[in-house]
Design a protein that fits this description.
Blueprint (H helix, E strand, L loop, with lengths): L1 E9 L2 E7 L4 E6 L5 H11 L15 E9 L6 H7 L7 E9 L4 E5 L2 E3 L1 H8 L3 E4 L1 H6 L6 H9 L2 H48 L5 H13 L1 H17 L4 H18 L4 H27 L4 H21 L3 H66 L7 E7 L12 E2 L2 E2 L7 E7 L7 E2 H4 L2 H15 L7 E5 L7 H14 L4 E5 L3 H4 L4 E10 L2 E8 L2 H13 L5 H18 L1
Parallel strand pairs: 3-15, 3-16, 8-14, 14-15
Antiparallel strand pairs: 1-2, 1-4, 4-5, 5-6, 6-7, 9-12, 10-11, 12-13, 16-17
């Protein structure tokens, strides 16, 4: 229940504190006095985005605070705990709006974000205003209202969850199909490329080795001449290196017999002779392997040319070509995996359709049963609101198909959707002898107000909302109908705190707490003032509502009679 509402620097309000009571709270006043500011303040606490004229001119910040009392077993207690917020018997919510557009919010002194603020406050209080009346004209909301009335929101959520899962699976399947098509378009090329690279039988580093071999083959005659000449110098000429080294070794050996300190030098010469002999043997072996054959050079040239064609297509080196082959082989393997995954998804989608259909069918059966009950109760309630001949019915119809997607979301000739397997729309016949027609096409403003009031009353048993605010509930009605609406609000206030803004004295007469909203001018500034009315002041306010700006003895008498009659009915 909303115990207290404090508003600072909001539109025409400078500083205002309102203490509400249980039961029916009425706010009345002349048009333009500022009654809508109260609604604006509550909407800010519900998370609504502030408008440009939110902050009172000259102020830097607007502030709205509300104190709610909360039953210990209220579902919101668990929500507060899950959000890490203090769970107490009273909840203080606060929101500030600064001139730069910055907004901050608190719950029981803990700073929170706008989304969390709205999530908490929407569990405490609800507003019925012109926007909600207009939403009643939209058939999209009718099925949701039926589900709320029947307590089917959990089953509705299960259907939505199953639909979302199916939708995700279908999207994944479609993506796989797209990938498969792309792969098929590419597969023939990939197979050719793999075959071409495999036939080349490439080896890592082969291109570099062949280039070196080609260079040798191209210069083979020059290389042979130089190596042959080197061999002659080292061993085969009369004064070759090997001959002179052998003479030098013999001389040092002879001297080492006389001076043993030369023995190490002799050994070095002997080692050098062995190394020189090995070099000579190596050169001779190289010459024996050196090839002059032009045919071999041609074969090397052809091999290099083939490799160069492959590297031009698939990479600058043999290693890059081999890496490319490994990648396309992987792509081809993934294509096989895509096909397997696609088949698995098709099975999962079929199972998902079946489970969604079964859940939707169960929801549909319960909806149709609840629709009869809701229609009967609405018609019964409307009798007390001057619509005794009105017939009310919920008409179900199949979901409109979409050729692009219906195949994916159809099971046993039934089209599936996020909200079930049917649409539901409110139909009514306001007068005897008229046929049922869509509510949106024939209901007047007054009829909409009464239907919404009836639905609010019926739905309130399913909601945890403790406080209900009605703005413009008297739209399009007056006289005895106003009294009937007042009686209905009083009845609703037995189980909920009701706050109602009205222009009708017939409704105001049922108030347990009555506030008058007015404007006054102080220090060249207009501001809104709200006054809690005592019994005689309430009579005067109702007389004003009856007769205009001034009241007469007659309007005062009528007002007293209305108030007395309302109290008897309320009792």
């Amino acid at each position: 229940m909303l115990d207290q509402l404090q508003i600072t620097n909001l539109a025409l309000i400078d500083q205002l504190t309102l203490s509400f009571s249980k039961g029916l709270n009425i706010l009345s006043g002349e048009t333009g006095a500022g009654k809508s500011i109260i609604i604006k303040a509550v909407n800010l606490l519900l998370g609504e985005k502030p408008s440009a004229d939110t902050i009172r001119q000259g102020a830097e910040e607007a502030r709205v605070e509300a104190l709610f009392s909360l039953p210990f077993d209220h579902p919101l207690q668990d929500l507060l705990g899950s959000l890490g917020l203090p769970s107490e018997e009273q909840i203080l919510v606060k929101r500030t709006i600064q001139t730069g557009g910055k907004s901050r919010a608190w719950i029981n002194g803990s700073l929170t974000n706008q989304s969390t603020l709205g999530r908490v406050t929407r569990s405490l209080i609800g507003i019925s205003n012109q926007h909600e009346y207009q939403s009643l004209l939209n058939p999209i909301h009718h099925l949701f209202l039926l589900d709320r009335f029947a307590g089917l929101l959990d089953l509705r959520e299960e259907v939505q969850t199953r639909f979302d899962f199916l939708e995700n699976q279908i999207r994944a399947w479609q993506e796989l199909k797209h990938q498969e098509q792309m792969r098929k378009n590419q597969e023939e090329l990939w197979l050719f490329q793999v075959q071409e690279i495999q036939q080349a039988d490439l080896r890592s580093g082969e291109d570099q080795a062949l280039q070196q071999r080609r260079k040798v083959l191209q210069q083979a005659e020059k290389i042979w001449e130089k190596i042959h000449q080197a061999g002659l110098v080292l061993s085969e000429e009369e004064h070759s290196c090997l001959t002179n080294l052998s003479i030098s070794k013999d001389l040092v050996r002879s001297a080492a017999v006389m001076d043993t300190s030369l023995q190490s030098l002799f050994q070095d010469l002997e080692t050098l002779q062995m190394q020189l002999s090995e070099i000579i043997s190596g050169l001779q072996e190289y010459l024996s392997r050196l090839i002059f054959d032009p045919q071999i050079l041609e074969e090397v040239e052809e091999r290099l040319d083939r490799i160069q064609r492959l590297t031009a297509k698939y990479g600058p080196t043999v290693e890059e070509v081999l890496s490319y082959r490994a990648q396309i082989e992987k792509n081809l393997k993934e294509g096989e995996d895509l096909g397997f995954r696609q088949k698995e998804l098709e099975k999962e989608i079929q199972t998902g359709r079946k489970l969604l259909y079964e859940a939707s069918l169960g929801l549909s059966r319960k909806r149709k049963k609840a629709a009869l009950e809701l229609s009967a109760q609405v018609e019964s309630e409307l009798k007390g609101l001057g619509m005794g001949e009105c017939r009310f019915q919920i008409v179900f119809s199949s979901i409109a198909s979409e050729e692009e997607t219906e195949g994916n979301y159809r099971y046993e000739e039934t089209l599936l959707s996020r909200t079930g397997i049917e649409k539901g729309e409110f139909y009514m016949a306001p007068n005897l002898g008229e046929g049922l027609r869509p509510l949106a096409r024939i209901a007047s403003g007054g009829e909409l107000s009464r239907i919404l009031l009836v639905l609010k009353g019926l739905l309130s048993h399913q909601d945890s909302l403790e406080s209900l605010i009605f703005d413009e509930v008297d739209s399009g009605i007056g006289g005895s109908l106003g009294e009937a609406v007042g009686r209905k609000l009083a009845q609703l206030s037995r189980n909920h705190q009701v706050i109602c803004i009205t222009h009708l004295p017939q409704i105001a007469a049922f108030a347990e707490t009555h506030f008058r909203v007015s404007k006054e001018t102080r220090a060249q500034r207009t501001q809104t003032k709200i006054l809690l009315l005592h019994e005689e002041e309430q009579v005067e306010e109702m007389a004003r509502m009856l007769g205009g700006a001034s009241s007469s003895a007659k309007t005062l008498s009528v007002a007293r009679e209305m108030l007395s009659r309302a109290r008897k009915q309320r009792a």
